[in-house]
Amino acid sequence: MNSFITILLLIVPMIILLLTITKRRRSSSKRLPLPPGSLGLPIIGQSLSFFRAMKSNTAEKWLDQRTQKYGPISKLTLFGNPTVFISGLAANKFIFTSNSSGITSNQQSKSTRAILGDRNMLELVDHDHKRVRDALMLFLKPESLKDYVGKMDGGVREHLDMYWEGKQQVKVLPLMRRLTFDIICSLFCGFERGPKRDEFVDLFPKMVDGVWSVPINLPFTSYNRSLRATARMRKIVRNLIHEKRVQLENGASPHQDLITCLLSIRNDDNEELITEEEILQNVIFVMGAGYDTTSTLITFLVRLFANDPVVHASVLQEQEEIAKNNPSGESLTWEDLAKMKYTWRVAMETLRLFPPVFGGNRRALKDIEYDGHIIPKGWQIFWVAYKTHVDDRIFPEPTKFIPSRFENQASIPPYSFIPFGGGPRICPGMEYARIETLVAVHYLITRFSWKLCGDDSFSRTPLPVPSKGLPVQITSRKVW
């Protein structure tokens, strides 16, 4: 009996030890490593070298070198945050179906969050995101935008009369920014030309400059200038919200502009569905998005038409047919826009090669397993659009300009063409951008011809910006 107890006392600890070792091994085997790469210096990390690459238009090469060295997932420090860079079709799908993936739906960098706030669509998740998105879509959905085609048409014609007609040379990018901003001010805020709009024109570039900046708040930094511009813009928009609320109470139409539309939306208790702070932040957000992205697309279309006579001739033929069917010169209609199929395919191919939005950020809400690695809770996730846009398995001969790629969009894999995002996070202003682009191209190409004046290279700041604003020599054409 004593020998049995002795043996038992020897065996039991051994069994316990064996089970403990096995459990630890199993636990250890489940522990995935961090992605490869280096975080670099605190806060700064690789931000400065990335910004240099953006400015010299070598950011794609910069990220390609990372991918070649580390693979499709790697760690670094960007915009003051520890970051994981992911790329490819699987990464895009992961990013744009993020509601169930443990990451914020569109978490911003520290600098972007400080400038745009924490109640705009980029920050909101789940119910709050849907509530604000649905409210914005009441104004931005195609059925509503049909009513604003005439107003856009008038804005484009007025702009060309003021800034293009009678000129021998113009700089395209600043004028396209002015055009898109004037239309935004009218449709979103309801104020026309005057000191208020002029002040906005001055403030917006300063605000945008700080969005991708290193968040160091010193007087000489773009981040500091952006914060000061944002503070002034918020004051102007907040005063505007108060004015619109009074107008609405006095019987103004809820469809006169975006701010009034958002103020008019009520919940079941007849309370405003969107808070004043949410209206303020989201109006500034959509103004900023529409101001820069659409103006960049139109600018690159002007650049394309100057460099590619075949595409130019085909777009001109399509637009002249529409103009000839409108001899009285009335505003373009929704039906006219539907006929601009080739023009919009050209625009989409331009977006594939030169996406205005280079990439974006998310943030992990918990430890996430992705591609055999751990993305730690709180870390930033950085994605880019170009990787799938130039993937020859998706777009054969990706460096060639082939608008016919988009004749059958159903053949393009989901989450591979993402200039407007994808899935539940697709840009709510996509249809607005399409209408504005088509209206602008129609009048530009039927009223003027042009040729480039010198260099047409560009850099990213972070949007693609042509050298010297893309100066062109212009000649007036026959107006049908």
From TrEMBL:
Keywords: Heme, Iron, Membrane, Metal-binding, Monooxygenase, Oxidoreductase, Transmembrane, Transmembrane helix. This is p450 domain-containing protein. It comes from Cephalotus follicularis. The keyword rRNA processing does not apply. GO terms for cellular component: membrane. The lineage of its organism: Eukaryota, Viridiplantae, Streptophyta, Embryophyta, Tracheophyta. It is found in: Membrane. GO terms for biological process: sterol metabolic process. Its main location: membrane. The chain crosses the membrane at residues 6-22. Belongs to the cytochrome P450 family.
